[in-house]
Protein 1
Amino acid sequence: MDSFDKTFLLNEEYRRSISSLSKFAHIISYIKSNKNKRILIDLTEYKYINPSYAVIIAAIPYIAEEMGNKSVIRYLANDYNCSNFLKDSGILKHYSYNNNDDVLNLKSSVDFLVVRNLDKSEDVANSIIEKFPVKLEDDIKNELISKIYEVFSNSFTHSGVDKVFCCGYFNQQKSLIFSIYDIGIGIPMSVNRYLKECKKDVLSDENALKWAWQQGNSSLNGKIDYPRGAGFQTLESFAIENQGDILVGSNNSCCRISSKSKSFNRLSEPILGTFFSMQIRRDLIHKYSKSNNKVICK
Amino acid sequence: MTILIRSFTPNALSEKAGSELRERILSSYSNDSKDRIILDFEGIGLYATMFFNASIGFLIQENLTDIINNIDIINITPLGKKTLEHSKDNANFIKRNANKAEIENIVSNTISES
C-alpha cells in the first residue's frame, strides 16, 4: 500500500456553490504551501462532484509537480458514478496511458486540456465545440467559441502565467458547464497592484473582484492605448441570456452571478489564482432538432 | 473605401487583428476625402470584445469622431453587432468617466489656487 503525507478524502456532495469551491481551494492551498509531499486525492467514497470542479481535480497533478509535490488521484473502477464523472470530464482520457476511445465515454466530454498559448485558444474552443454530442447550428456554435475565447483571453492576459487549464461538460439535461483555471496572480491581487500604481486605496479581495466586474474597469486601462474592461460584462450577459450562471473564485474572494442575483463574498479558504466557471442552460439539442425537422419537412 | 476584414484575419477575435483594423481605418481616412469607410465583415463568424476594443474602442477613446461618423459596417452577424455594442458602450463609459475625472481635477485645482 502506498503511503501518503496527506490524503484528501472527497466523500461529500460538492455542489456548484461557494462552500464547495472553498473545499477545493483548501486542497490547492495545501499543495501550494508544502514541498516534497505525496498527496492522495481519494475518490473511493465518491458521492457527487459537480462537473465545474473537474478542472481543479485534473489540474492538481500539474500544480503539485510545479510546487515540488507528487499527487495521485485514486478511485474505484467499479464505481459507476465516479468513473462516469472522470470519463465525462475527460480526466481519464487525459491521464490514461491506454488512450483507447472504446473504453472511454466521450459522448459528453469536453476534455481536460492544458492550453499554453492564446493564439491556440480559438482552435481549442473549436475542438471543444466539435466534441459536443450534437451538431450545433452555426450561430450558437460561433457564440460559444467566441465566449470561450473571451474567457481564455482574460485568463492569459491577466494571470501572468503561460498555461491555463480548462474542462467542460455537456450533460443530458441540456446544460453546458465550461470551467477554466489558472494559478496566476489572481484578480484581486492584480486589481490592487493596479490601484496602488494609480495611487488609489487598495480594496478588500471581494471588493477588488467587484471592481474588476464593473463596466470600464480593467487593470490594463491606461497601460495600453485602447479601452478594456468589456469582457466580464459580455460573459455575464451571455450566461444570463442562456438561463445560466457564473461562479468565480480568485484569491480570497468569490462571486456568483445569475439572472436572480449577483453576490461577491469572501472565500473561507483562499484559492490560488483564478477559477472561472460558466454554466448555460440553453436548449441546444432542441434547437438542433428543430432545424433538422425543417429539413425533413422539405 | 472598403476594408474587407477577412482579407487580413479569419475572425474578429484578437486584439492583434483589431489593431490591424485600426491601422487600416486610420490610413484610409483623410480629412479632405468624402469617401466613406466601409467595414465589410462578410464571412466573419467569430467575434470578441478585444477585437473591437483595439479598433473601434480606440477611435472612441481618442475622440476621433470624424472618423467614427465616416464608418459604415456591413455584413456583420447579430453576434458581431452585439459584441461591437458591448465594446462601444464600454469605451464610451471610460471616456465619460475620464472626462469627469479631468473636470473634477481642474475644479479642485482652481479652488485650491483661489
Note: Chain A has one domain: 6-297.
Protein 2
Amino acid sequence: MEGLLSCWVRICCGEEEEEEEEERKEEEIKMKSFKTSCSSLPLAEADGPRPAFWFSTLQARPPRQQRGRRSSEGGDGEGDGVFPWNPGLRFGSSHSYLSLERLGGGASAVVYKGVSRINGRLVALKEIRVKSEEGVPFTAIREASLLKALKHANIVVLHDIIHTRETLTLVFEYMQTDLGQYLSEHPGGLNSHNVRLLLLQLLRGLLFLHSLKILHRDLKPQNLLLSFRGELKIADFGLARSQSVPGLVLSSQVVTLWYRPPDVLLGNTEYCSSLDVWSAGCIFVEMLQGAPAFPGASDQSAQLQHIWTVLGVPSELSWPGVTQLPHFHPERLPPSRPKKLHNVWKRLQQLPGKTEDLLSQMLKLRPSERISAQEALKHHYFHTLPPPIMHLGDTTSIFKVPGVRLEAEVRAGRKLRPSVLHSAPYW
Amino acid sequence: MKSPGAAESRRLVVLLEAALLREARLWKVPLFKNGCIQGADVSSSQYQEIIFWLGEMNRLFHFCPETFALGVCVLNRLLSTVKAQPKYLKCIAFTSLVLAAKINEEDEVIGSVQDLVVQSGCSFSTAEILRMERIILDKLQWDLYTATAVDFIHIFHALLVSGHPHLVPSIGLGSASDPGSPAAGPGLQKRPAGLQAALWTRQVQHCMACHQLWQFKGSTLALAIITLELEVLTPDWFSVFTNLLKKAQVDSGEFIHCKEMVDEYLQSLEFSLPPNAVYIFNSALIPDQQRAWNPTLRLRRGRGGFAQQGDTDEFYDGFRCLYSEETTQQGNNVDSQQKNVSPCPPLHPALN
C-alpha cells in the first residue's frame, strides 16, 4: 500500500505539477473574488475531475479503521457532480458547507471532511464545542485571530468561520493527511530525501512564525498537515501566542509531553522560540527513525529522565542556572553522560554526519544553545537542495522550485511494534 | 560575517514592519464630533472614564499591559464600527478586555468569565458578556490580533538596545530578557532590567485614555513617548530618533502634533497630583506594582529629584532641531521651561 501511495505521490508531483499550479492560481483568484463580493461567479472549469489514475489508486485502498480520511480520498473536484456549487451562498453560513465524513476528534473539537457548496472545494470543518458559561474557548479565538493574520505556504489556511448560537466551526483548507498518519503508514522511517524536504518546510513555517514573535507551543506530527504532493503545513494554533514582550512569564503546561523541551519540563516560564525548535528536533528524529524520539513517558519527571539518558544530566557548568529551575532535583537523577546520537537513533549511522550535526544542535538541552529556525535553514544539511529553495516568497510552496519533489518511500524491513506508532485520532 | 548586532537589528526591522502592516490593516478609531463619538451618544469624558476603569480591571485581574492595550484596540474598533448606546459601553469595554485576555493571557491567568464578572463588581450577567463576545467577534470578523502601542514600545526599545548599545549604560535602557542585549552596564545596577520599557508602557496606558490622543496610531504614540524621554536622557537623541522615525514610517507632521499633545497631557497629569509627589519620587525605590498608575513617572523630573538645568537645555535644543528653529539664548529657555514645568517653588531635590 505504501508503495502505491508513493508512486502516486511521485507521479502527481512530477508530471502533473505545472497543471496543478495553474489550477491553484485560478482557484486563489476565485477565492479572492468571493471575498469581495458574493455575486455570481464563473464556473470553476479547473475543478473538473482529475485524471483518474491516482484517484482510483487511492480509492482502492481499504478504509482505515481509526481514521477514515484516506478512505474516500478525492480531490478538489470530487463533489462537483453531487453538490452543484452555488455562488449565491455566503461565507460564514453553515448552509454553505456539507460535511462528508468524520476525520477525527479530540476533547474540544471534532473534525469533518466537508465540501464547500460555494465553490465545490474540499474543506476540513473543525467543529468546536462552545461552553455555555465560558463562551468561545480561548483556543478558538487564538487560532482564528492568529491565522487571519498569518499567510504562509507552510501554515494552514483558514477559509471561513461559522459562528452559530450552539457551535463554532472553523473551515480550513483540506489536506490529505498529516505527518503522524504518514509516519504510521511508513514504519521504519521515511526516505531521507523526503525527511529533508519535510523538515525544511517545518523550519520555514517556524521561521515565519518566530520572525513575528509567535510561538506555536504544540508542535507534533499530528499537527503537521500534508498535502498529496508533500506540502507540509503547520496547524492547530490553539496554544500559540505572540510573545512581543520579552521576559513574560508563560505557562509551562504547553506542548504535548513527548515534544516538550527540558527547560519547560524543569519549570522554566520564560522560554522563547527555542521551545518550538526542540519539538521540531523531536519530529526530525521521528521522521528518520519512524518512532518518537522520547516516547512513552506519562509525567514530567519520567520525560526528563528519558531525555537525560540520551543527552546526559545537565550541570551548572554545562547549563548555568539549571539548578535554580523549579523542578530540578539532581538527587533523583542517576548520573548519566551524553550519548552519541547515532548510537541512540541508529538510522543516523546510515546517513551523512551533517544530519546528526543539525539534529544535535536542535536538541541542545540548554535553550540558549539551541539553533534557531533561521540558522537551521542555513545548515549544510540542506545544501543538497537547489539553492532557489531558500529564496522563495512567504506564500510560495517549495514544490514550485524545479526538480523539487518527494521520492518514493521504500517499505523498510525494520518494522516497528504497533504500540509505538502514532494512532492519535486527531486531524 | 556581519556582527550579531546587525543581524538582530535586521530581525527587529522585520518584526517592526510586520507590526506596522498589522496596524495599518486593523487600526480604526471612532471619530469625535461635538464632544461625542460620532454616531453614538458617548461623550469624551465617558470614554475617558471607561478606559481608566478598564485599566483598573486589567490590574485587578493581574493581566499584563499588552492585554489592556489590545482590549482598548478592540473597543475602539467596535465603537467605530457600530452605534453603541452609552448604557452598553461598560459591557462592551469589559468584553473587549475578556477577549484580549483570551488571546493574550495564559489559561491559568484568565480565570472563568463568571469570576471576572464577580471580581469586577459589575452587575452584568455571564450571558450578557457572552452575547457581547459573539457580537464583537462577528463585527470584527474574528480579526483581533493586531499590534498595539505597547507592542511598539517594546519593538522600539529593542531596536534602541540593539542599534545604540552605547546608550544602554547612560539611560538604563537595558533589558536582561532581550536576547542579544549587551551586558549590563554600570547604569543598570540602579535600575531593574527592562524598567525603562515598563515606564514607557505605563505612559502609553495613560495616553490611551486621552480622547485627543487616541486618534493617533499606536506606533506614533509609542514613538512620541520614547522621543520625549530620549530628549532628556541623551544629548545624542536626535540621530537616534530620526533613525526610529524612518524605520517606523511615521508621518513627521502627525508625529510632531502627537508629541506635543503627549507632552501636554502627561504634564497635566502631574499637576493634578499633590505637588510634593514630585519631590519624593525616586524611580529606583518604588516597586513596580505601585508604578502602574502613578502618573509621576516622567523621568525628566523623576530622576535626580527635579529637572536639572542640563536636561532642560537638551529638551529645548531638541525642539529647536525638530522645528528647525534658530538657536536662541539658553537663559530664556530655561526660564520659560521652569515656568511651564511646575507651579511649585523649586524645592531642593529629595533629601534621601
Note: The longest helix of chain B spans residues 4-26.
